[in-house]
Amino acid sequence: MRALVTGAGGQLGSELHRVLAEAGDDVAAASRDRLDVTSRDQVLGVVLGLRPDVVYHCAAWTDVDGCEADPDRALLVNALASRHVTEACRLAGSHLVAISTDYVFAGTATRPYVEWDQPDPRSAYGRSKLAGEREVAAGCLGAAIVRTSWLCGAAGPNMARTVLRLAADPRRDLAFVDDQVGNPTFTSDLAPLLRRLGVARLPGTFHATNQGPTSWHGFAREVLAAAGHDPGRVRAVATADLVPPRPAPRPAYSVLDGAALRGLGIDPLPDFRDPLARLVKELTHG
Ligand SMILES: NC(=O)c1ccc[n+]([C@@H]2O[C@H](COP(=O)([O-])OP(=O)(O)OC[C@H]3O[C@@H](n4cnc5c(N)ncnc54)[C@H](OP(=O)(O)O)[C@@H]3O)[C@@H](O)[C@H]2O)c1
Q1: What is the DSSP code (8-state) at residue 123?
Q2: 0.85 exceeded by the pTM?
Q3: Residue 113 belongs to domain with CATH number
Q4: Mutation probe of ligand 1 site: the residue of 38, 58, 186 with most atoms within 8 A of C-beta
Q5: 73: how many CB neighbours lie within 10 A of its CB?
Q6: CA-wise closest residue to 86 among 73, 74, 102, 100
Q7: How far is CA 36 from CA 19, 44, 77, 82, 103, in A?
Q8: How far apart are CA 202 and CA 199, in angstroms?
Q9: According to the model, what pLDDT value does residue 156 have?
């Protein structure tokens, strides 16, 4: 398989690069300095030059509060760039696997969201990612859109790393919100599933997360427990009590149900505590 990964310098892109290379794929890892996905010329040049079997589109502007402050830039990076990648894949005959997010949903549901539920993003980030999904769906018949949530991996900043860093100071007050619930998902599990979807050229929208919905407070407790610290150190706070308040609204409940994968007989990713334990070991023991 010849594969191209956009955003290959990021948390998911770097793990995917590793997984694809280990599987024997001929993989071009395009980080932002090699391929700026907002440049239509660059995207067409790289994709039509390589003509990969599969393009894994991981590049995105993922700073949720940054997007809220600059929605135009969010649309440029997360929506218009997806148009370019989609066009290039259509012209090159490449299968496209585009990554999206639980933040396309409002978060007001009382049961997990399935792929066919109506998106209703409440943040500029979520709106820009949904616009990107629409570019992919409209522009490249047969493309896959994979929504995931609360990503953690060895590369890049994420909540697991943040909790570990804060917990290293025993005097540090550890307070996390208990009124935002989602599925922590680990790149070490997600990346092989993305490859599987890419190789099979499966079309349509998929929800792919680790199992075990929890709040950020619950997740922080699990991180501490995995690292051998006292989970009781973590205090629960409400989103409304955060000082200062976060600029972008987050969904209160964005648990994704992988109904499409299940229907195709593809096993769900395991409970998040398994990959969490591996990641904590890797981060704390080198
Ligand atoms: N992180 C999460 O919790 C989460 C949850 C659900 C879904 N997702 C989705 O999962 C995907 C991967 O996220 P991630 O956690 O790996 O994010 P990440 O670590 O921020 O990686 C995104 C990568 O895209 C790059 N990028 C930004 N603008 C670009 C541009 N114009 N051209 C090329 N590359 C550009 C970034 O480079 P710079 O660092 O140089 O800006 C970064 O390396 C994204 O689609 C994201 O929306 C993430």
Answers
A1: S
A2: yes
A3: 3.40.50.720
A4: 58
A5: 16
A6: 100
A7: 23, 11, 9, 11, 24
A8: 8
A9: 79
Residue 236, domain member (yes or no): no
Query: Is 176 a member of any domain?
Result: no
When pLDDT is averaged across residues 8-14 and rounded to a whole number, the result is 97
125 carries an active-site annotation: yes
Residue linked to tokens 């830039």: 73
Structural contact between residues 25 and 3, judged by C-beta atoms closer than 8 angstroms: yes
Residues with Cβ within 8 Å of 286's Cβ and at least 6 positions away in sequence, in order, are none
Whether residue 67 lies inside any domain: the answer is: yes
Q: Which of 56, 113, 125, 253 is catalytic?
A: 125
Whole-number CA gyration radius for the chain: 18
Per residue in 215-247, pLDDT (tens digit) is 999 999 999 999 999 999 999 999 999 989 999
Closest of 10, 6, 23, 1 to residue 193, by C-alpha: 23
Say if CB 95 and CB 141 are below 8 A apart.
Answer: no
Ligand 1 pocket by C-beta < 6 Å: which residues?
Answer: 6-7, 9-13, 32, 35-38, 58-62, 77, 81, 99, 101, 129, 148-151, 156
Q: Which two tokens stand for residue 178?
A: 């208990």
Domain of 189 in residue numbering reads as 2-157+185-211+254-270
